[in-house]
Write a structure and sequence with these properties.
alpha+beta, Adenine-n6-DNA-methyltransferase TaqI, Chain A, domain 2, 2 domains, four-stranded antiparallel sheet, three-stranded mixed sheet, 6 helices, 9 strands
């Protein structure tokens, strides 16, 4: 991961935040779901001087990863209208968009492959946390940018469950998997082994075959 950053990872701000609605939102691990979504039911706010705000201000495309508590939890910041800074137990990673699309990394951060790295790393460290250096050692499958865009488009589209699949859970697993494969092949020209992509439980593996990248999705 360290090779696709355009600046050093940054730890968040330690501050006493308030429930009172102030000028700047203070984003905490508690505000992020396991699926990387932002919760707005119990936000915290604070006031900062311009220098502090500019140091910790989040920009569109910033990746946040929890280093303690819910270790490995990932969030892609995309709300560029609201002023937001991030808390101490989060690490900001700013990606080089000439190499990797932030949304591509975000989806990778929801995958079993990523979660396995988190679990394996936690086994060998004394404390239940992962620091910026350890995250920088994360290996990311990195196809060319056009393929990243294609993968992201597939995952975004696939996350919207097709109407004719609303009763899929009621069907036998054998028939279900057959229908799943047919759906992906017909819709995207892509083979897959399960509908796990619809629930963001996926593992991306890009295999170089005949000078082309082919996407396979495994549960």
């Amino acid at each position: 991961m360290g090779e696709v950053l355009n600046r050093k990872p940054q730890y968040g701000l330690t501050a006493k935040a308030s429930k009172e609605t102030l000028n700047i939102r203070y984003l905490r691990i508690l505000d992020i779901t396991d699926q990387g979504n932002l919760k707005n039911n119990d936000p915290r706010f604070l006031d900062l001087n311009e220098q502090e705000f500019n140091k910790y201000r989040l920009y569109k495309g910033d990746i946040l990863i929890a280093r303690s508590g819910s270790v490995g939890r990932v969030c892609l910041h995309h709300d560029y209208k609201q002023k937001v800074v991030f808390a101490f137990y989060l690490i900001r990673f700013r990606l080089d968009t000439n190499q990797i699309i932030p949304k591509f990394f975000f989806y990778y951060g929801l995958s079993p492959l990523y979660k396995k790295y988190i679990e394996d790393t936690l086994r060998i460290v004394a404390q239940p946390n992962i620091n910026a250096t350890e995250y920088s050692n994360l290996q990311i499958p990195l196809p060319p940018l056009p393929e990243q865009k294609r993968i992201v488009l597939i995952l975004i589209t696939s996350n919207k469950k097709p109407r004719h699949c609303k009763d899929f859970k009621k069907r036998p697993k054998r028939k279900l998997r057959k229908l799943e494969r047919l759906f992906y092949i017909r819709r995207f020209g892509v083979s897959c082994s399960s509908w796990s992509v619809l629930y963001l439980c996926l593992c991306i593996k890009c295999i170089h075959i005949q000078n082309k990248y082919e996407l396979w999705i495994f549960c």
